[in-house]
Amino acid sequence: MLLEVKNLKTHFYQEGLPVKAVDGISFGVGAGEVLGIVGESGSGKSTVGLSLLRLIDLPGKIVEGAINFEGIDLMQLPEKAMRNIRGAKISMIFQNPFTSLNPVFTVGDQIAETLRFHQGLSRRRSRDKTIEMLKMVHIKNPESRINSYPHQFSGGMQQRVMIAMALACNPKLLIADEPTTALDVTVQWEIIKLLRELKDNLDVSIILITHDFSVVAELCDKVAVMHNGKIVEDGNLNQVVQRPKDPYTQKLISTVPRIE
Question: pLDDT for 198-212, tens place per residue?
Fold first, then answer.
């Protein structure tokens, strides 16, 4: 098992009282697997992604649990060691590329910085690898677009840049937090198609965080349904979609539009 999470609890404190955003969940992701974590807004699913990278800011805190990645409990690592994990072995795509990309640096500089930090590449080699990554996510004319700033890209193209940046260092695990939410419907399916292609071509496991069961059905092998900080149902994709047991899962699936 590439990733095994046991009894993870992440709380946010208001006036000393805990709000249990993640309340004792356990799950695993194998090599090459795609796990969908699905639930409505406020269910705690995005907090799970941030917790895996230990990116919870105050007043939040991971209060309990183990996050075993390649046999190492990330909860026991010092912060310096975690910085070497983030972006290199575990990468995250955030749901809003407009706020995730730095507006004052070119997209090429932002991807190349990741390569220089984690892989120690020279400026020339990091530039070449950046061009390769932009080609991989189907951005046209990458040799010139590396000199463009984020505002010169559409929302869909910005999300492709974020995916290129996340995959630049060949991570073993990619966490995609609502990667299609801020995009229009046509562009959403282009991003889903790209993620499916990358899943098939790269040796990477994916945790897809979403509220949309139709996206899960396109990409995932397994599903974990979250509600009020807990996993209320999990299992094989077909098992959960075709024979949902929990009433909350049944309601979520019923909200997916059908052509008929």
Answer: 888 888 999 999 988
Torsion of CA 11, 54, 42, 172, to 10 degrees: -140
What is the Cβ-side half-sphere exposure of residue 207, based on CA atoms within 13 angstroms? 31
Cβ atoms within 10 Å, residue 219? 19
Query: What backbone torsions phi and psi does residue 9 show, to the nearest 5 degrees?
Result: -130, 125
pLDDT tens-digit readout, 30-89: 999 999 999 998 899 999 999 999 999 989 999 999 999 999 999 999 999 999 999 899
Strands 60-69 and 230-236: unpaired
Tell me if 167 sits within 8 A of 198, measured CB to CB: yes
State yes or no: pLDDT of 98 exceeds 90: no
84 C-beta neighbours (distance < 10 Å), count: 12
> Which whole-number Å values give the CA distances from 137 to 141, 166, 234, 252, in the listed order?
12, 11, 31, 31
3-state secondary structure the chain: CCEEEEEEEEEEEECCEEEEEEEEEEEEECCCCEEEEECCCCCCHHHHHHHHCCCCCCCEEEEEEEEEECCEEHHHCCHHHHHHHECCCEEEECCCHHHHCCCCCCHHHHHHHHHHHHHCCCHHHHHHHHHHHHHHCCCCCHHHHCCCCHHHCCHHHHHHHHHHHHHCCCCCEEEEECCCCCCCHHHHHHHHHHHHHHHHHCCCEEEEEECCHHHHHHHCCEEEEEECCEEEEEEEHHHHHHCCCCHHHHHHHHCCCCCC
This prediction's pTM: 0.92
